[in-house]
Amino acid sequence: MSSLYSRGRSIWIKFRDADGRLQQRPTGYRKSAAGKVPQGALELKTRIDNEIILGRWGFELPGDDSMRITEALDEFLETKGGTFSPSYVKLIRLSVRKLTDFLGDIAISKVSPGELFKWRNEMLDKDGEQNAACWIRHVSPLFSWAASPISTGRSAGIIQRSPFVKGVRLNPDPPPQRIFSPSELRRVSAKLKADSLHKFNQLEFLRLFGCRLSDTFAITWDQIDFERRVVRYYNHKGKRWDEFPMYRELHDFLRTVPRDFVPFVFKYRTRKVLYETLKGIIKDLGIDSSLTIHTLKGNFVEEMFRRLSDLSDVQRAARHQSIQTTIRHYKYHDVRRLGRELDKRPRARKPKRK
């Protein structure tokens, strides 16, 4: 019989086929943040167990080798159901369109590593390393799915292996992390206050609390416990409820927020107005246009590094699922800290000759 196991958050399945050979394959599903196995993976396990009992499982699955890339993409997204967010689906479709614009909408079985190398080099010249890496990263799951014999649908097993061989993928260094400087924060805050106090309150909460903008939309006053000095909120990315200590600066700020939108704490419950407001202020002040609302999360993590000495405490405060994310932030924090220390220390003077 088959059994499910995990590699990180990816769920794999292993079993012995009709010839007695051990098979290990990705199911295409991932565990939830709470560690739950999706129903689709369990249904796949049941299907394979039935095939094994009937003695029919030998990976001789018929595939339609004439299926074009866009047809395979539609079926791939259909089999995934609602497991992908709309923004992720949009990015996959954009990446596949980049590929078909270069190769044409050919049969997916005709795509070779050589053609992918040519496409990769074209994207490097045209879009740069960061964007090329993004397109490649979002196209490769389609081919991995089409190469897996346990995928469902007509595309199952139509290619022997994914053409994304070693060397096609790019692993560029992440771009340098940028956060608001203290002077930039003061200027932006002053402009926000002049524009709208409600907008300022919602974005100031992001800086002091370190959550995502979407997490602020549904926060109610019932979730803010001044007696216990904690804020209880729903983490939409992790799909869980979290509690965060109300440290003094955050406590004093929340005491000043007017209760004009009870039961909600903040006025705005869509991204568009806040994004456009901050973008316009940044442009008017002549600040780096790469700074966004999410940059305030980086400012929050920077502040946690200054207040906390233990890296694991910073991870918990920032609600990072992986310590590697915290370490990546720390690398840039340490460089900035070193720069501040160098600025503090006066240049050593040579002793005067007598």
What does this structure look like?
The chain starts with a strand and ends in a 10-residue tail after the last helix. Residues 58-64 have low confidence and may be disordered. The protein has 354 residues and is mostly helical. It folds into three domains: 3-53, no CATH class; 69-147, Orthogonal Bundle (DNA polymerase, domain 1), CATH 1.10.150; 182-344, Orthogonal Bundle (hpI Integrase, Chain A), CATH 1.10.443. The chain has helices spanning 39-53, 69-80, 86-103, 113-127, 129-147, 182-195, 197-209, 213-216, 248-256, 271-285, 295-307, 311-318, 323-344, and strands at 3-7, 10-16, 22-30, 224-225, 230-235, 240-245.
Key terms:
354 residues; mainly alpha; hpI Integrase, Chain A; three-stranded antiparallel sheet; 6 strands
How many strands appear in the DSSP assignment?
6
CATH superfamily descriptor of the largest domain: Intergrase catalytic core
Low-confidence stretches: 58-64
Fraction in beta strands: 5-15%
Question: What's this entry about, in short?
Answer:
This protein is mainly alpha-helical and 354 residues long. It is 50% helix and 10% strand. α4 (113-127) runs antiparallel to α5 and α11 runs antiparallel to α12 (311-318).
Topology, please?
Blueprint: E1 3-7, E2 10-16, E3 22-30, H1 39-53, H2 69-80, H3 86-103, H4 113-127, H5 129-147, H6 182-195, H7 197-209, H8 213-216, E4 224-225, E5 230-235, E6 240-245, H9 248-256, H10 271-285, H11 295-307, H12 311-318, H13 323-344
Antiparallel strand pairs: 1-2, 2-3, 4-5, 5-6
Helix pairs in contact: 2-3, 3-5, 4-5, 6-7, 6-10, 7-11, 11-12, 11-13, 12-13
